[in-house]
C-alpha cells in the first residue's frame, strides 16, 4: 500500500479532507487534487521531440512551460465530509475572519 493510500484511508476514517497534487489519489478517496496535468506535459514533450526529429536544433526550440493545472474534486468524498460537519448553534462563539475577537455567529441570531 502506498503512502498516499495510507494517508487517504486514515483521513477518511477521521473524516478529514485531503488534497494532493496527483489526481490519481482522488480516485482512491482523496477530497481533491490541484496540480500539473501529466497528460499535457507528455503532449508538450512529444511536440519538442517531433521538432528535434524533423531537424530543428535544440537551441532553436523555445523552452515550454506548463500553462495548465488541474483541480479535481471527489464529489463522493465532499458529500461525506459535508454531512459530517455540525452547524454551530446561535450560542456558540465563532471566530471572526476580520479580527481575533470571538463573537456570536452572525448567521444564527
Any key phrases for this structure?
three-stranded mixed beta sheet; 39% helix; 17% strand; single chain; alpha+beta
Number of domains: 1
Gap between N and C termini: 48 Å
Classify the secondary structure makeup into a structural class. alpha+beta
Average pLDDT figure:
81
**Helix share, percent:** 25-40%
Low-confidence runs of at least 5 consecutive residues: 100-105
- The run of helices and strands is HEHEHEHEE
Main beta sheet: strand number and arrangement? 3 strands, mixed
Number of helices: 4
How many whole angstroms does the radius of gyration measure? 22 Å
Q: What spatial order of strands do you see in the largest sheet?
A: 1-2-3
Question: What spatial form do the alpha-carbon principal axes imply?
Answer: elongated
For the secondary structure, the number of strands is 5
Strand content: 15-25%
Describe what you observe in this structure.
By secondary structure, the chain is α+β, with helices and mostly antiparallel strands. It has one domain. The protein contains four helices and five strands. Residues 100-105 have low confidence and may be disordered.
In short:
This protein has 109 residues and is α+β, with helices and mostly antiparallel strands. It has helices at residues 3-14, 23-27, 38-53, 75-84; strands at residues 19-20, 32-36, 69-73, 93-95, 102-104.
What topology emerges from the helices and strands here?
Blueprint lengths: L2 H12 L4 E2 L2 H5 L4 E5 L1 H16 L15 E5 L1 H10 L8 E3 L6 E3 L5
Parallel strand pairs: 1-2
Antiparallel strand pairs: 2-3, 4-5
Amino acid at each position: 500500500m502506498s503512502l498516499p493510500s495510507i494517508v487517504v484511508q486514515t483521513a477518511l476514517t477521521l473524516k478529514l479532507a485531503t488534497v494532493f497534487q496527483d489526481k490519481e489519489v482522488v480516485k482512491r478517496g482523496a477530497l481533491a487534487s490541484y496540480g500539473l496535468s501529466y497528460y499535457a506535459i507528455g503532449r508538450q514533450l512529444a511536440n519538442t521531440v517531433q521538432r528535434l526529429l524533423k531537424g530543428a536544433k535544440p537551441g532553436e526550440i523555445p523552452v515550454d512551460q506548463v500553462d495548465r493545472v488541474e483541480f479535481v474534486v471527489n464529489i463522493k468524498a465532499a458529500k461525506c465530509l459535508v454531512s459530517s460537519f455540525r452547524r454551530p448553534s446561535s450560542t456558540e462563539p465563532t471566530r471572526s475572519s476580520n479580527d481575533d475577537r470571538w463573537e456570536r455567529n452572525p448567521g444564527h441570531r
